[in-house]
Amino acid sequence: MADLRDLEQLTPNRGLSKHQLIKRGIEFDVYTERHSALIVPYDQVIASSINFDLLKVAALEELFVLKLEAYRDRYSSTKASKDAKDLIRIALVAGSQIPKFNYVRVSSYLTEQHFERLGRVERGAEPLALAKGNSKEAKGIRAEFLKFVSGIRATF
Predict the structure, then answer these.
(1) What's the predicted TM-score (pTM) here?
(2) What DSSP letter does each residue of 14-79 carry, written as one string?
């Protein structure tokens, strides 16, 4: 964290126990073990993380769980739509991931309430928004998302 602070300007968000970094218009959430309690233990996030340039980032499996938990927590807030779109994007990327996405790593952290929220994402307006109003494309996005969630459900 100290190294990152030396390189970038971080904004604390005490309400969500995180820091934020905005780089080239992209918002990054920075969580530290001492200040945040996450659904996925830090040692698991680090053990599965991948390198992106000089930065370690969560693998798609852990990122999906963390984003789903954020969606569950912020379901009635203005950020919920962004979280839902992010969940769909992760699912679409994970479908083409090599090596294959590890559904078991995801399902081990989930509850029935998470699956209920995933159903709301699939039925919500976000697939149509991601398809820029193209209903045929949105139908395909919904189908891919449902297939992805079914893969997780099968290992639950």
Answers:
(1) 0.83
(2) GGGTEEEEEETTEEEEE--TTT---SS-HHHHHHH-EEETTEEE--HHHHHHHHHHHHHHTTTSTT
In a domain, 6, yes or no: no
In angstroms, rounded to a whole number, what is the distance separating the alpha carbons of residues 133 and 127?
9
Tens digits of residue pLDDT in 115-154: 999 999 999 999 999 999 999 999 999 999 999 999 999 9
CB-based contacts of 39, cutoff 8 Å, min separation 6: 65, 66, 69, 109
Instruction: Give the integer Cα–Cα distance in Å for 99 and 74.
Output: 31
Average pLDDT over residues 41-52: 89
Residue 10 lies in a domain: no
In which domain, by residue range, is 95 found? 59-154
55 vs 58: CA distance, rounded Å: 10
For the stretch 68-97, what's the b/e string if a residue is b when 16 or more beta carbons lie within 10 angstroms of its beta carbon?
bbbbbeeeeeeebbbbbbbbbebbeebeee
Residue 93 covered by a domain: yes
Question: 12: cis peptide before it, omega within 30°?
Answer: no
